[in-house]
Amino acid sequence: MASLRHPLPHVDRISGALTAAQIGNKIYYRPPIHRHPALAPWAQGVELPVTEELAQTHLAIAFNPWLTEDQASEVTEHVAAAVAA
Question: How far is CA 69 from CA 1, 26, 77, 79, 83, in A?
Fold first, then answer.
């Protein structure tokens, strides 16, 4: 997995475009870890603005050492198209 950060609303658009093209990706950390129900009792009143921002701008894209140049180009094309939309 490679992780990238991109401003909203691009992350959701990029994820949607990659999913539609059957390219593995995952939005992690939503909700942010301190807002997750399992940890929320210990984070009441805690403000973590950087964590909040990272949770909204993080996207993991599947890749491996055997990714071909054509496959990498396909991923890049879908990301670029989603950002341009």
Answer: 17, 22, 12, 15, 21
CATH number for the domain harbouring residue 32:
3.90.1150.10
DSSP 59: E
Number of domains forming the structure of the chain:
1
| Residue numbers of the domain that contains 67 | 2-84
**Residue 10 CA from chain centroid, whole number:** 9
Q: State whether residue 26 is helix, strand or coil.
A: strand
Per-residue pLDDT tens digits for 4-63: 676 666 889 999 999 999 999 998 888 898 998 999 899 999 999 999 888 888 899 988
pTM of the model: 0.79
**Integer angstrom CA distances of residue 55 from 4, 22, 26, 32, 50:** 11, 23, 12, 5, 9
